[in-house]
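User: Continuing from earlier, I have the next pair ready.

Assistant: Great, send them over.

User: Here they are, in order.

Assistant: Folding the first of the pair now:
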Amino acid sequence: MKRLMVAFALMAVSGCLCAKECEKTEDCATGQICGPQRLCEVPGGGTGGGSAGGVGGGRAGGSTAGGSTGGGVAMAGGAAGGATGGGVAAGGAAGGCSCPVHQYCTATGGCLNYELAWVQPAENDNFAADASVTVPVAVTARQQDGGSLVDVQVPISGPNPSTTTVSGLGTLGALTFASPQSGTVMLQAGWPGGSRLFRTINVVGCENTSCQPYEGCVPSTTGGSCQPLGLTINWTTPVPNLLRGPRDPLITISLTVTADAGPLPSAVPISFDGGTVALAVAMGGATYAVPSGLDFTTLAGIDGVKVLTAGWPGFPSPTRSIRWDSAPPQFTIRIQQPTGRPASWPNPTTWRRDETALVEVGSNELLASDPVLSLVGADGGSSLVAANSKCGFSPSCVNVRCDCFSVDLAAAPLNGAAGNMGLSVSGRDAVLNPATQDGGAIAATRVRWQTTVPGLVSVVDPAMDTSGRLYIAGTDGGLGGVVAQVLTDGTLRWAQSTYGAVTAPVVWSPNAIQADAGVFVATKNATQAQIRALEVTSGTMTGNNFTCADGSIYSARMVSFGATVATAREVGNGLQSVYIAEPSSGNCAPTSSAIVAQRASLVGRSSIDGGYEVFAASTGNAAFNRLTTNPAGTTWTSNIDSLSGSVEIASLALGNGRAFMTRSGVGGQGVYAHNLSTGSPLQVFALTDGALAQWTAASLGQGGTVYFSSPAGPAQLYRTVFTSGSPFGSFTPNTQAGAALGTFDAASSSFSPAHAPILGHGGAVYTVSTAGELSVFQGNARAWFGTNAQTLFGAVSVAPLLDVARSSTGAALCGRPGTLYVLSNTGVVTSFIVDSQGLDRDAAWPRFQHDNANSGNADTQLSSWGCPP
């Protein structure tokens, strides 16, 4: 450090002729005074002073002529006296003194130096180094002989050079001098040859320091020194262990800084491991922050923990950890295996279409929200998001997070008898990294169970009561028959051997309110025919079996009117008469005249006057027969409308005021609508074709829609709409090509429908071929077909039953998939899950013989086997 020193040279007092040291004037010889330099001096005298003044003027005064010129003091001098140059006129007219500016004239006519005293600055005062230094200064001047302060202009000087003057009375002035560096500076006040004072001041600065941001400079005369500021840094944000990722990369940065001494730093650097930049955080008071936040997107590098450090190398800097996560979550999917399958279920480890499978989704990290599990239908069908639920799962999950889902397998398409239902899970982790992951598949089947009814060699159309219990019947290969009840879970509840082969069973009840009471079957052997009523819970007979008068009652069909049944007497294949039978009472009333027909199909309805109407359409001797009975069921009347040509009538369906029949044969083929109100014998051809065609029986939907099938040419499903009119009505369209809804098998025409189309809830149409192949139509085309269902069902010759889903007590479960019960020719019953919720309950005639009870009665309510729209 360079020290700047300025020294003033001491000047000898003018007129001093000796060098004796003194403390006061008494120590000096006569005519001398003790000067400001503590030396005896001869005071300056006046020129031409009075006689009393002596040399240089005396303290006792002079003549009246004394005076002063140039600053002297007239002390009793005469008018003519004077002083030149500041002396004192102490004598008479010729006496006085002339003194320099740094002296005054005494009373004796001599000149004395003024006494000076520093007022400011104080010794060793400190002043900050700058491009220039301005020092406030002040001195006082005093007569040495004890006189008062006097008003004298005192020069003051400093380095470089710099001068100013102040009043001797102590008026403040300022001394400015160039001093760019620190050091000790000497100030001087007074005059050369007169009183002089010296004062040392310190110029302090920091020009020789280079401090760290966390240090402060203490100014000094040597250029300053660095001292710790005593900084304390505290993190405000982010919170410890904050988690961030590319979806939300901004991190709010703020901290507070306090200091024991000195100013706060202008900025605090922030760095982090793995990063590439250091951030200077702008200050706002004691709070430091990055207003827009720190974007980690381009800084984070690989995933992991990033440590933020606030401060400087070598400084105790606090840290804050941030976890950067750019990787999507990873999921695992586990599917619970089904348990507790009955032996009747052919696939004990496969989930059923109508079941709810348990699926566990595990994640390797925490998630922002619940994961979403999608069930993807087989054959590329659409998916459904499954709702999260808390279900039991074993063994327990070992992932960071686990969610259990109850997956309704009926919620996504399954276009076939079986297939794999895919699973896909999606979700976001805690920093919103998205992931969608496919994993696992649920093997699903539509087959619920299969049960074999023992003893059956051939079968007739099965029936069902209003609780969903099945009634399976047929022959044992000889003259005996079998009737069995199968429950909705596949349990064979009972099986009864009957006396003779049986017709298709018909479920009956005494009235619409009472529960199912029994099952009608008609049996016969080589010598006897009987009508039997079996009790539903045990299969035992209710009442007495009875034989009608002619002993030959047997028909392929019966019509139920509650506890009363209409059946027919056949001789060979010829229909001879129709009977109204009441098994509970033993009554049996035949028609009054014979009806000559072949393979007749009976259907009926209630008559307006409280009796019954039975309709029969026959083959061979073509005729349409309408028979009515009185309310007591004791007498019959009948009329017969001849059908021209040699025709074959498949079956009858009643609806829209008409009896609809499909006709094949010479003279016209297609669908006929016979007016039941007018008895009009005229028929309306719905379809015509040059070749002889075969048709299944017709089913009637809503709004006059008629469905039927052909087994060849090619095998197709037809749909036409009948519009009522008087007396005949009309069909739209009226051509085979226009009515074709779709083919059963585009590759071949081998599909041979075994029954009338079954109309299901939601507009689906079901048809099973004689080979056991299922086709499902929806809208205007075939939705899917079950080629492997052929293996499941076996050969089929009778109509299936379509029912709602049911609980263990038989109650309908609307909203769930329904069941198609298919009976094979060998007595195997297959419970097959379909998407329709039972029969179309609003259809006029949705299946063969109208309903699942096989009542053949248009008045039977369909609500027991179908759900509301």
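And the other member of the pair:
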Amino acid sequence: MFVIANLTKTRALTGASLGVLALLAIPAQAQTNSGSVTLGPVTVESDSDKNALNHAPPISTMPSASIQDTPQAVTVVTGETMKQQATSTLGEALRNVPGITIAIGEGGTLAGDQFKLRGFDAKDDVYLDGLRDFAAYTRDSFNYEEVQVLKGPSGLMFGRGTGGGAINTVSKTPFLGERYSLGLEGGNGDHVRGTADLNYQLGDTSAVRLNLMLTDTGVVDRDLVHSHRWGVAPSIALGLGTDTTFTLGYIHQQTSARQDYGVVVATPPNSPYAAPATEFGVPRSTYLGFSADHDKNTADLVTAKLTHNATDWLTLTNDTRVAAYSRDFRYTPTDRCDNTAATNYCSSVLFGLAGLGAAPGSANPLSALAGTGGGGPYKQNSWGLQDIAAASANFPIGQFRNMLIAGIDVSYQRADRTIYAYTLPTTAQFTYQLGNGGRSRGNIGFPLFGFDHQTPPGYDVILPTAANVAGGGTSASATTVVKSTGDATDLAAFATDRLWFTEELSVIAGLRIDQYDATYKSVTVAGTYTEFKAPSFLFDPRASIVFEPDQTQTYYLSWGKAATPIGTSVVGQPTPISSAAASALKPDKSETIEAGAKFSTFGGKLGLTGSLFQVTKSNALQIDPANGAVLLQSSQKQRVQGFEASATGEVLEHLNLTASYTYLNPVIAEATMMVCAQVTGNDLAITISAQMGNFELNVMLPVIAHNLLQSISLLASVSRVLADKAIAGFTVNQEHIADLVGKNPIMVTALNPITGYDLAAKIAKRAYAEKRRVKEVAAEMTDLTPGQLDELLDPAALAEGGIKGGGGGG
């Protein structure tokens, strides 16, 4: 159940607008009444907001008047859509956007907004009014006018990252007029939310706006998961409607929540597939953590935007942001229910088996215990600033219309983190039920049924030092990182030019270059200091051809690149640069080619779009799924092909439509074949090296060891990539496979001991010529019964080795 109440009062027409309406009304009244005229309430409606193609482009440094003539797939989630859906966070708003998947902090990243766009990581590609919102936290949507998602590499417009695209949120800003809006929501899951949107006109060219939010909510059918969040966003605008406009905005958001890491997965006996434990009887409401878990964070962002129309052909802009973030995080990611001694065979016990190969019923499923992982609690303080100065010039080149946009982008980010540990109860205070029962955090058992969420006695947060770690009474060790600092500078210059050969045909070309320098410093409990630096030079070009027969049609072909350097996420990644080897790796690069069309129909009320695209990532980084660290640079290519279509706007009066569809076909190109080639070469080198022994001494053992270890590492990595990125999610066509196996002439081998080779050969030749199953032909050409044929020609039995009904292998 969900209840929403909204109260809005608007006084939007003042000054000049009211005067124009009066001039239009007076002549008609003067014929019958020469006295004063009183105007009643006036409502002005526009179709422009109904069709998202009419909206302004995401950032002012794009040479486009609207999304209609932007040569890229762009999905807009309007403020009205978010209001009608009672959207409260950015993640909820993005459920309207196909091609986006949402995670909850997998891979060692900080919990918070975790997005993947067209299959590529986009957690660092979130922007607020065209400037980076670089921290990892759950963003509330109370101050959003709309959300715009650009698909495909967007390095020219936004800079580093953006391999799959960029997510740009547009803030609510002051406008001329007055409007006061209050909203109150209530629903299941103990959900209560209140918002206020207040706009007040100060003078003829100035206004202020204030947005407020308070949210207190749980999650339906999830124990202990709760969030308390509040925010305030004041802003002021000066010079509205003049040549010089200045807007200053501030947003503060504060959250106190308990993170939900879901439930563990388990593998049924004799099954190669794992599934959430809730599929096997564990209640969906089960929260596998402690009541002391918490996520307390704040975000403070100050944004100043200045626009000056210097002449009728030159516009200057300067956007500046200073942001500070803090986080206090304590979590219990219970993530182990496998068939190993470390979890006392949790995945077997869950199905009533005491261990691998044990008899059914030998264990009580209610006694299944999961294990925990993850690091210690931490506190992090981050801050950063960014300034983008740009000039937009409209001037002709000969007889051709031309627009040039150029500027510089300077930014800095820093994150300081303190990592804590847990004191561990003695074995006399607490019984460790997993593994060998030793004093270890990993040996704390978490019951999948009836967990009380209370922390063990003596299980407290502590700042690890050499002294308290030496006794072995904490979850830390001498090599545990206790302090870390990450910082990065980015100096960039960009330029984009759009040249119109005719009013209908134009070409867009642009280039952005970045000098990005990231540094990561850490200190362990033992005092070991480590520092890694990763400088990167990024080169991101882009080009498009745009054909617009009229204002309602746009056809385009675009190509562009984007690059993601090492250390791109000094705030959102616990270890942005994991080693000296990782710091030397080159940026991974994404390239896109996209062809599309956009139409405005029904008098501009309805927008239709469609596009075909291919995104190729080269020099891709292989990330450790356990902790997010860079394992290696595989030089492999990852390719995503697909298409998408959308329709937004007014279909009928009082009936608005927002519909979109994206099809993605991801492929890991070349990687597996290249690894096979490398491993084959390594094997040959090992073979030759092994033959180089003289007097019981082989001086080539180093190359043998190197090649062997490299082969193991490459095969392990590529197997994981192939399984996760290519094979996972496949649906096996059982009927087609059975048909192919049944028609394979090799099946007659099983008939040899019964029919003899000559008749078996005739059956095989006839089955092949008639494209029929061997079993069908054998039924016609032999006296074997259907039961005998089923037994002899059972593919599963044949795969086990040996032949039923006779000796030999045929």
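Worth noting for the second one:
The longest helix spans residues 701-727. The two ends are 68 Å apart (CA to CA).
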